[in-house]
Structure formats: C-alpha cells, structure tokens
Design brief:
mainly beta; single chain; three-stranded antiparallel beta sheet; two-stranded antiparallel sheet; 78 residues; 0% helix
C-alpha cells in the first residue's frame, strides 16, 4: 500500500483514500485530489518502510515485490 503526502496541506493519505475523477480536459485522464483540502496540486510518495514518513526517492525489487523507500531504507530487508 502506497502512502502519499499532499503538497498543499501535508496530509498523509493511503493511496485508496485519495480522490479520483475523470479529467474535465481529457476524459482518458484521471485527476487525483487530497481527501482533506481537495487540492489537485500534487503529492509526494512516502517511504514504504513502516513508521517512516520521509519521501520515497529510491525504488528496488524485493522478494515481497517492488519497494519505494527513502535513502535510509534502501534495501533494508536484504
């Protein structure tokens, strides 16, 4: 499960709680919004290591699937 931080209000939200709607400009595209402030100005992905709230800047394959982590948790399970 991915967690995201809103760039406007800083809310941490799991992927399934983000708001989604068809774009009014391109019906083949989807707009994603914050469930708290309703902004669509963007999100930063958060490290998937439990308890860490740093932004994810690294990605790597693991036995459990692809991981997105901060630099401190790069390949932590290996």
């Amino acid at each position: 499960m991915n967690t995201w931080q809103c760039k406007v209000c800083n809310l941490y939200s799991p992927d399934e709680r983000l708001l989604r709607a068809p774009s009014p400009f391109d019906p083949t595209d989807t707009i994603v919004g914050c469930p708290h402030c309703k902004s669509t100005d963007g999100f930063d992905q958060v490290c998937d290591e439990p308890g860490c709230t740093a932004h994810a800047h690294c990605g790597w394959p693991s036995d459990a699937g692809y991981r997105r982590t901060c630099g401190n948790h790069m390949r932590v399970n290996e």
